[in-house]
């Protein structure tokens, strides 16, 4: 048996077959429940002193030949997912996104943006859900592709929507570009197509995550 306030974390761990990520993600309900447990730590805190260390800022490149781990990373899907999640975690950006998706009656402050969510059909790239659900949890799922959208991406997203059921109020496919036929297919199946853009990217340049966060735009087509 799992306590309801920990269901999100428990389900993720179960469907992943265990803990296999370098980060641990909890939703707002879990965090609030945990914050009410135990006692406040009031003992002296010892500072961890580390000397003789070096730091660096990782860069993102669009030319694979310029990749040099761990300082320079080739632009991949997990980087785009992280950028979009951080972008939508800003209330103003999330509200613009909701309005563009035709969800004008929804307020950004009522939702939280979470990273990869495990389902039996696979992993939802980004899950937007009610911050404080009451019985029924509204969910918006995002499937993200760095390249051109394909028919199989729509099918994958449809499978996620079916698994989540009536709580899923929208499915969004974000890709670099859509063909005319694929855009029509999205509209026919009720999938909302978006493109991402960083405006002008120079393949010979290196970009920090902050650079890309400032340049990122999500556009409904």
TrEMBL record:
**What are the Endonuclease NucS C-terminal domain coordinates in residue numbering?**
116-192
| Any Pfam family matching the protein | NucS_C
| Transmembrane regions listed in the UniProt entry | none
Report a single Gene Ontology molecular function.
nucleic acid binding
Please, which domain of life does this record's source organism belong to? Bacteria
Protein name (Swiss-Prot/TrEMBL): DUF91 domain-containing protein
Q: Which organism is it from?
A: Caldanaerobacter subterraneus
